[in-house]
Protein: Pantoate--beta-alanine ligase
Amino acid sequence: MAAPSEPEVIRDKAAMRAWSRRRRAEGKTVAFVPTMGFLHEGHLSLVSTAAAACAGPAAIVVSIYVNPSQFAPTEDLATYPSDFAGDLRKLAATGVVAAVFSPPDLYFRGSARRPADASGNGAISCLDEAGGDGHETWIRVEQLEKGLCGSSRPVFFRGVATVVAKLFNIVEPDIAVFGKKDYQQWRIICRMVRDLDFAIEIIGSEIVREADGLAMSSRNVHLSCGERQKALSISRSLANAKTAALSGNNHSQQIKDQIVQALTEAGGRVDYVEIVEQESLVPVERIDRPSVICVAAWFGKVRLIDNIEIQVPS
Structure:
């Protein structure tokens, strides 16, 4: 039996669902933090947020699952960093994580023609639908997934919304925590939960940054020292833009142009810079309402995203 500070590792979907139901029957709040692993302080801050959100006894579940359906064929699924043993050590050190859900694959299904073994070999995948038995049910949050990251990653949010819905149906949490660094993702999940009547409270956790201001990301490990220094232009330009907006220079196009210039001069390749209303993600011409400046840029082979919220004084 695991020590109290060591999370129980659960691989099976039915076992995970049964675990959550037992905890709820014990009067505990099931709080859920979905991740793709290779955990850093940003992820651990989500765990702290989940613990703080529970008014009484809590059962905190962290999932570690690299979701294949949100990666396009040209993207970095094969090279996505992984350190499962290290992740377990970090989660154990928190002293509050009760279970880790790490399924082998959430899209494979057994086939009568090709029985799947324990590793999933012989199964049909969502990424291989030629046999007609693959996963073909998808969730689209149609308006919010447009623009921002959805423009350059057209399958991304379909994959995110679908896998989160699957995880919600398996873990059956009362509370789920998402980081605001992935701002569009957080808003999409909020809307999906509202529209599909999931009985789950969604909490957005603030961005955690390195001491130099770089937003924490599992992809930061792929930056060279030089690229990392250049990437600091993202957080600096966002901070400068917020200062300018709150000082009265709130014309969106001017602010966007200044950010693009700063990133380009630093050696970055800009994917987008957009200023949008916080809930609808509709672009605003002036920052005269609660807004968020969202940035995506490439430094070397690494695509980084960041944002900053601006609450306009009433």
